[in-house]
Design brief:
This protein has about 260 residues and is an alpha/beta fold. The protein is built from 10 helices and 9 strands. A hairpin with a 6-residue loop joins β1 and β2. α6 crosses α8 and α9 runs parallel beside α10. The radius of gyration is 19 Å and the shape is globular. The termini are far apart.
């Protein structure tokens, strides 16, 4: 019998409290949660621990394994394109992008469930898919990389009650054994919601939107976000970190959109 998601999450929270009282590791808690049967988050078939069934997992992550040509820096799919239009329009300050999948069905449904319906199980599932993508990448991440989630706007936090990027970053940091330091980056002003802007407007809106709160001389930084569209937000954040001494800035996203031809 599969437990409903709410029940599964209640069991997980109970196990976590028991673990703290007994001095048991989080890995022990995770092993117990992983043993719980549940429905697949997408097809409602048989799965474990509120995750995806093997078929849905393969379908979500297929776009990054199908051999399509991509930009080596921003991970944009270059089908039908000679060069990367995003990097040509704005040479990025970040060094590279690692994305779990392209922003298309069915992976986009998981992001929607996390952001709009507050199904926090999706953060755990999505971070697992992204972690696997990082593990199989030939270059991977430098040792001792610091993960930093993109700060959400006040309006977004009021609407959702949480920052999706921060939820994913915390889970991803645990999976990769890396530090997560949200306080290293802050949003200077509210700005305009990026989703409502054209490509050019996104680039202009992102200028000076974020700042590093201290020096990061010699550190490797990985900025964590949910979706990369034009790369304007990642570019502005990477510029801020490199101005503060970062040795490298990678961008880790759940999904990479296709190229948008609007100006």
């Amino acid at each position: 019998m599969a437990y409903p998601e709410g029940v599964r999450e209640s069991v997980s929270a109970t196990l976590a409290r028991l673990a703290r009282c007994a001095g048991v590791s989080r890995r022990w808690v995770e092993s117990k949660v992983d043993a719980l049967p549940s429905d697949c988050l997408l097809c409602r078939g048989r799965a474990r621990a509120g995750r995806l069934c093997p078929d849905c997992l393969a379908e979500v992550s297929a776009t990054m394994r199908d051999g399509r040509r991509r930009c080596a820096i921003c991970a944009l799919s270059l089908e039908g394109l000679d060069t990367c239009p995003d990097c040509a329009a704005m040479p990025p300050s970040f060094d590279r992008v690692l994305a779990a999948f392209d922003y298309e069905f069915p992976g986009d449904l998981l992001i929607h469930q996390l952001k709009e319906t507050r199904r926090f199980t999706c953060a755990r599932v999505l971070s697992g898919i992204l972690a696997q993508r990082i593990h199989v990448d030939p270059a991977g991440l430098p040792h001792h990389t610091i993960l930093v989630p993109v700060p959400a706007s006040r309006a977004s936090v009021r609407k959702r009650g949480f920052n999706p990027a921060a939820e994913v970053a915390r889970s991803l940091a645990w999976r990769l054994g890396l530090a997560c330091r949200p306080a290293l980056l802050r949003r200077v002003r509210e700005g305009v919601r990026q989703a409502s802007l054209s490509r050019g407007e996104r680039i202009r809106n992102a200028r000076g939107l974020y700042e590093c709160t201290g020096r990061v001389d010699g550190y490797d930084i990985a900025v964590v976000d949910d979706v990369l569209t034009t790369g304007s937000t990642a570019h502005g954040i990477a510029r801020a970190f490199k101005d503060s001494g970062a040795a490298s800035v990678s961008v880790l996203v759940l999904a990479r959109t296709r190229h948008h031809f609007s100006s």
